[in-house]
């Protein structure tokens, strides 16, 4: 089980495609930094391959003014939630 950390905006579709190919059955995706824009309803279609296994970091949403606009299908986690995700997954992989 891997925790995938993604910081690229949905304007970088090749990263999302590559991530989709590497994403395993027990894996989870955490959107950080500019990847938060993928959590918005118009862009969230890019996350369909990861449905039910996607979270977004609250602090990064707030810093971008996006906290109230997240798709209801995506879990919002704070730094404690981020820590909990790292504890429940064997390794972390960063997609930059």
UniProtKB/TrEMBL annotation:
One of its GO terms (biological process) is tRNA wobble position uridine thiolation. Coiled coil: none annotated. NCBIfam families: sulf_tusB_dsrH. It comes from Salinicola socius. SUPFAM superfamilies: DsrEFH-like (SSF75169). This is Sulfurtransferase TusB. GO terms for cellular component: sulfurtransferase complex.
């Amino acid at each position: 089980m891997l925790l995938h950390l993604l910081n690229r905006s949905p304007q970088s579709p090749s990263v999302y495609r590559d991530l989709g190919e590497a994403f395993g059955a027990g894996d989870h995706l955490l959107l950080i930094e500019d990847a938060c824009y993928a959590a918005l309803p118009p862009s969230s279609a890019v996350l369909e391959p990861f449905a039910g296994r996607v979270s977004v970091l609250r602090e990064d949403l707030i810093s971008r003014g996006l906290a109230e606009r997240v798709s209801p299908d995506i879990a919002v986690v704070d730094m404690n939630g981020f820590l909990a995700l790292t504890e429940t997954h064997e390794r972390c992989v960063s997609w930059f």
